[in-house]
Amino acid sequence: MLESSSSTTRIPRTKRFTAALLALPLSATGLLVLAAPAHATSGPTASVSLGDSYISGEAGRWQGNSDTASGSRAGTDRSWTGSGYNPGAVYGSTYASGCDRSDSAEVRSATGIAATSINLACSGATTANIFRAANGGQAYKGEAPQADQLAAVAATNTVKLITLSIGGNDLGFSDVITTCAKDYLIWYSYCHDDQQAAIDSRMPAAMAGVGKSIDEIRAVMAADGYSAGSYRLVLQSYPSPIPRSSENRYSESGWDRADSGGCPFWDADSDWARDSMVPQISDALRQVAAAKGVDFLDLRDFLQGREVCSTSTRLAAPGTAPSATTSEWARFVDTGLSASQGTVQESMHPDYYGQLALGRCLSLMWAASAGNHACRNTPGRDASGVYLN
What we know:
alpha/beta, 7 strands, 9% strand
């Protein structure tokens, strides 16, 4: 006790305050533990995704690709109602805003992780759309910064897993795709030289933004009373939606790549994107994950053999229904004969089959030990053939 009722000596206030501090519990490291909010674990367990179009579920409307431009598009358009198209059946209310969170998005396709899955990702988001508003974050498509949305989710649920896909739009990934397609369709020139320079120039700021995104997520969770070890945070990279030139079923001469396959890229640009740009981005994200001490899911080879125009896949057609074992797992570029299908922003994203497989990747990641893992597919099999190595 600081004072005794029988004591005739009063202990000075500063000494009483010091004694009170010394009576507080210490952490295992011996550091003083000040009062912190404790998270109430009564809410349902939750798996949460944050980030951009590669995790929001963009292109989940499509199960494979087809050049058939009407009706169900040879069975590939999941929004076909029999008399028209209802993209809201796939993307819900987020189709109107353009966030395009599909019903097959990675976080929703994954199983065995939590009681509920919550998708906060939005197509087109940059790292600035992740940060808290109080720390420079920006609202996007009518929604608050994703870290601020996460705070509300973390307060009412017991978050067990957070999966983040971000940085691609900071690097101008969609600009790269557009430039390379135009160079094939219009200018008859290569894109890889100037686009490599563009990627290099944007890389430092983009990766700094990814690192800050991780810091913001952690700050939100700590403020909601979560300890660092009470949830897992996974940063994932991006797959290549186009194959190497040697694995493209269409010649680079003529118009088949554009009008039939929807992969309007020169051989040299395809090889650069598949074997230089995508690995470079994956390596940079892996370094950020290591520096921040979070798990890393490497997706660079996830679509191997399932890319748009791959020799291992085929288009759906009348009489040839789409299939998870034979169809492409990514959406083709919306040009040529395919221009009347869906929206351009769906181009070059994992489609319905790809998202089911990504959900399998996430389930396996959750079941695996912490650290770095790469996700790949097994030729000739559906999502059940996905594995980590």
